[in-house]
Design brief:
Blueprint lengths: L1 E6 L4 E6 L2 H13 L5 H4 L4 E4 L4 E4 L3 E4 L1 H8 L14 H9 L1
Parallel strand pairs: 3-5
Antiparallel strand pairs: 1-2, 3-4
Length: 97
């Protein structure tokens, strides 16, 4: 089990990732979880994790770290600046609205 801490300036956040498998499961679940807006936000886009062997969808690509993608598919714009790709403008407009 690995842990890293990020200082946001306001508070210290501690994140623990149990395993790569659990991250893949979380990303896959986020694609279909009814309370998450990913079905609308990710429609027509290919989401690709750059630090994990994971991608989903089809269309213009949005790529970034697993953490940035998972945060964005959950509807939070905090880590959008860490994402890139030809589908980013569309994806960002959906996440921020």
């Amino acid at each position: 089990m690995g842990a890293d801490t990020a200082d946001t300036g306001k508070e210290s956040l501690s994140r623990v990732v149990q395993s790569w498998h659990e991250v893949r499961v979380a990303l896959d679940f986020a694609l279909f979880a009814p309370p998450l807006p990913v079905r609308v936000n990710g429609r027509g886009l290919r989401l690709t994790a750059t630090d994990l062997d994971w991608s989903a969808g089809s269309g213009p690509e949005v790529r970034g770290t697993r953490e940035a993608l998972l945060t964005a598919v959950a509807g939070r714009a905090d880590l959008l600046p860490e994402l890139s790709g030809p589908g980013l403008t569309t994806f960002a407009s959906r996440v921020q609205s």
